[in-house]
Amino acid sequence: MERANLNLSQWVWWTERDSILLAYYDAGADEFTSPSTSGIKVNLLYIQRPDKFLVTGEAPERDGFSGTDVYNGVALAAGKMTEADMLNQEIEIAEQFHEALLNRVIANGYERKAETLPLSDHFMRKYEVGVRQAKIYSTPQRDGTISTVKPLDF
Amino acid sequence: MKLKEMIERIQQHHPDMGVVEVVRSLNDAANDMGFRAECIESLDQFDTVADQRVYKLKKHIIKIKGVDYDNKTIKKLIGRPIKRDLY
Questions:
Q1: Which of A14, A98, A129, B13 could make an S-S bridge to B77, C-beta 3.0–4.6 Å?
Q2: Could you tell me which of A33, A36, A14 has the C-alpha nearest to residue A23?
Q3: A104-147 tens-digit pLDDT
């Protein structure tokens, strides 16, 4: 038997080579077959990278933006960031963690001189606390469910 | 917090940092936090193609949490089939 742990005929997915693969497992024949029909809807629920801030004239890296689509809370023009709205962008990471982002950039700035390295460490530690809090915030999905967070050293 | 306020607050510490440098550094920070805290969840949809098993994932996807096929949740296969399909 090809899959000892799979004993029911069903559709399954897995990832490989930076792709998602879909197949129907036939328990009777013990084989996987690809979708035979076009146009079947597949929904992907996933964790994504935040959309980057754009400087004037830049276009989003991510597909799906064109014309006057809204990106980071502002309207693009011909699919690109405008000078008028560039500074009004707002990242989709929750507001309470924006200060943590600032702390990391401030830490990076203080890294450039030997005499300010202790300040860099100080702000980097504050950033790390923010990352841990963001992880805890995202785990119960804001529904208030009590969940156990496995301690990890970031 | 809007980008303008973020830049102003960073420049209070580092007045020599230009706007583009601040934006690039903020993007690095957001990318790191998004990856490690997994704090942004999204949903996308695509259509199957006949006899095609492999569908390229977009670059902004960090981790797949669930898949529906024809509006029904399907299970993740642990490992992969012994016979590898190229397409």
A1: A14
A2: A33
A3: 999 999 999 999 999 999 999 999 999 999 998 887 656 666 55
- Which of B2, B71, B83 lies closest to A90 in CB terms? B2
User: Cβ B75–A36 below 8 Å, yes or no?
Assistant: no
Question: Given this model, what pLDDT does residue A1 score?
Answer: 43
Which amino acid is it at A136? I
Query: Is there a contact between B58 and A62 if contact means CB atoms under 8 Å apart?
Result: yes
Among the partner-chain residues B30, B51, B65, the one whose CB lies closest to the CB of A50 is B30
The residues in A 79-118 lying below 8 A from B, measured between CB atoms, are 86-95, 97-102, 104-106, 108-110
ipTM: 0.85
The DSSP annotation for A45-68 comes to EEEEPPPPP--TT---SSSS--TT
- Record the pTM: 0.82
Chain A nearest-CA distance from B64, in A, is 4
